[in-house]
Amino acid sequence: MFDLIIRNATLQDGRQNIDIACREGKIVAVASNIDGDARDVIDAEGFLVTPPFVDAHFHLDGALTHGNPMSNQSGELYEGINIWNRLKDTLTAEEVKDRARRICLWALANGTLHLRAQTDICDPKLRAIEALIELRDELRPLMDLQIVAFPQDGYLRTPGAVETMARAIEMGVDVVGGIPDYELTAALGQQSVRELCELAHRHGLLVDMHTDQTPDPQSRQVETLTAETIRLGLGSRVSASHCPSLANFDDYYANKLMAQMAVSGMNVVVCPLTAATCWGVMTRVGELYEAGVNIAFGYDCVLDPWYPLGTADILDVAHMAVVFGRLMSATQQTRVFESITYQGAKALGIDRYGIAEGCNADLVLLQARNPIEAIRLQPPRLAVVRRGKIIATQPKRSAMLLFEGDERLIDFTQKNLMDTKFDTSLSN
Ligand code: FE2
Predict the structure, then answer these.
(1) Contact of 9 with 42, CB cutoff 8 Å
(2) Which band of pLDDT confidence, cut at 50, 70 and 90, is reported for residue 189?
(3) d(Cα 394, Cα 121) in Å, to the nearest integer?
(4) Are residues 47 and 57 in the same domain?
(5) How many Å lie between the centroid of ligand 1 and the Cα of residue 210?
(6) pLDDT of 369 strictly over 50
(7) What is the DSSP letter of 360?
(8) % of the chain exceeding 90 in pLDDT
(9) Do 376 and 227 lie in a common domain?
(10) Which residues form the domain of 229?
């Protein structure tokens, strides 16, 4: 007797007619036609089943504050930081937690069960850190939050930030953050990268810094982070977030840097939605894949000083990554889907992740036949499973065309688009 069996699933590697059996929170069998009964049975009807989505970069503490006290008129990063600083002193831990919880539940309903929260520590009271640590514990039965201690106003530049970083580490954050481009000079930025990597190394924590987060082709912070990753042997424990300047580096320097990033084993975390609003340029996603760099994606911002829209659905991000990055081939688009699943899990260091015997029974059933269709349609998550229990569902999406007394169910899949009999009549 199993707790849950999902029958007739398609997996993202293309395997079809697969059953997935779960017991005591773990996947215990993955095969065709598994014998046995289960408390819950889901008929996947040939739709795609994946491990849960990974959102590797999110500012939960600022989410849902759009327009308060004003909205960002230029869309630029620094205007957003100024607005956030006017708002920050008015916040309470309880209020931050309520907003963050709402976003986490949106993400969860969309199949994201792993989320890394960049959390501002440039507040002597550390209200956001307190809120997010409480929320991480509260939501643990449903999803895993990783908390980054993020010095939004600069680690060396902000009086007291060195001390609040130390306190945040004592309070139990998972990741040491940084923002070297926002330090007062390039040299101080490099110093901050070195100090923060050493700090993380001493405490056995992960590293995720906002690096080269400017369109400036002269920015040189990722190379310092790469060198520190190699010097301290931190490998995949380090992530470089954003990196838009890489898109504007000359090709000689960019190619040398990307090769070194691959050698270091570090991850790059890309946030295509805010890359569009803040800089109008992303990073070299296609070339980073080619160089062998592990890439994760993040939503970054929802309804806050940096992004005026948002759903917390990582498929929205994947869609923008394909468009903004001109990732035209099926191979590249499949890699984007891997980035919101397996590559994201590698970046966050998630154990027992995947669809195989012994993995955690955390799964998502999508109303799509394959990963590329999932990115294109951003379809309903028909079921979200955590440790073998169904924790969220959505009804199937359908549309009915009513035309000249006839009714026809519209199918948005590529296969059937061409044989809809209304195609010609509607275009007349
Ligand atoms: Fe960010």
Answers:
(1) no
(2) very high
(3) 36
(4) no
(5) 6
(6) yes
(7) B
(8) 92
(9) no
(10) 53-348
Q: Is the pTM of this model over 0.85?
A: yes
Q: Which residue has the tokens 């991850």?
A: 267
Which H or E run contains 289? helix 285-291
Same structural domain, 326 and 360: no
336 CA from centroid of ligand 1 (Å) = 19
Strand bridging mode 406-410 / 399-403: antiparallel
For residue 280, give every residue at least 6 positions away whose Cβ sits within 8 Å of its Cβ, in sequence order, or none. 215
Residues 134 and 257 in one domain: yes
Q: Torsions phi, psi of 267, nearest 5?
A: -105, 155
Question: For 276-300, how does the pLDDT look when each residue is reduced to its tens digit (9 = 90+)?
Answer: 999 999 999 999 999 999 999 999 9
- Looking at the fold, whether 105 and 215 belong to one and the same domain comes out as yes
Q: What is the CATH number of the domain that holds 318?
A: 3.20.20.140
Answer whether 219's CB lies under 8 Å from 246's CB. Answer: no
Cis peptide before 159 (omega within 30 of 0): no
Tens of pLDDT, residue by residue over 114-168, are: 999 999 999 999 999 999 999 999 999 999 999 999 999 999 999 999 999 999 9
158, 46: one domain = no
286 lies in the same domain as 311 = yes
Distance 57 CA to ligand 1 centre (A): 6
Distance of CA 168 from the midpoint of ligand 1 (Å)? 18
